[in-house]
Design brief:
By secondary structure, the chain is mainly β. 12% of the residues lie in helices and 39% in strands. It has two helices and twelve strands. The termini are far apart.
Length: 163
């Protein structure tokens, strides 16, 4: 039997975005700010994004995910917060039900090659108090959203490239 060890990514502080039945973790250093969904501009919504959010005088595209981690086309009533990602320069808003900051650092396990796909932004898994967290980062999200958007109207890709 061939036993393969999945490498660990060093422990780090994580912010966890909550979606229906799914918890998505990103490095805390990549969270620029949080905004209430009441402060979002939904008038700019299109097939690529749910809304726009103003951060430091800059308009960012804001998207959300469902329980299958597919992008949403309408903002659900129970989504309350927008996490603006991009440590020094915000690039993207992710709208979710809520967001938590983990008190302790967690060790992310890189996904085995057999589980990696080009179409996925999930880059690892982590355990936190017996719960499995799906892990990603800003660059993986931007790459995923840009690739998916190029199949649509290209609006979101253009917004991300301007940032």
């Amino acid at each position: 039997m061939n036993s393969q060890v999945t490498p660990e990514i060093g422990g780090q502080q994580m912010a966890v975005m909550n979606f229906p039945g799914v918890r998505l973790a990103v490095p805390l250093v990549e969270v620029h700010s949080l905004v209430s969904v009441f402060d979002l501009d939904e008038s700019a919504a299109n097939t690529s994004m749910l809304a726009q959010v103003e951060v430091d005088g800059q308009l960012l595209p804001a998207i959300g995910f469902d329980a299958e981690l597919c992008t949403l086309s309408a903002l659900p009533d129970d989504y309350r917060v927008c996490a603006n990602l991009g440590s020094g320069n915000p690039m993207l808003g992710i709208i979710c039900q809520s967001i938590d900051t983990l008190k302790q650092s967690i060790r992310e396990q890189v996904l085995p090659e057999c589980m990696l796909t080009k179409a996925s932004f999930i880059k690892g898994l982590a355990l936190n108090d017996g719960e499995v967290l799906l892990c990603t980062n800003l660059s993986a999200l931007v790459e995923y959203i840009s690739a998916a958007d190029k199949l649509g109207d290209g609006f979101l890709s253009a917004s991300l490239e301007l940032s």
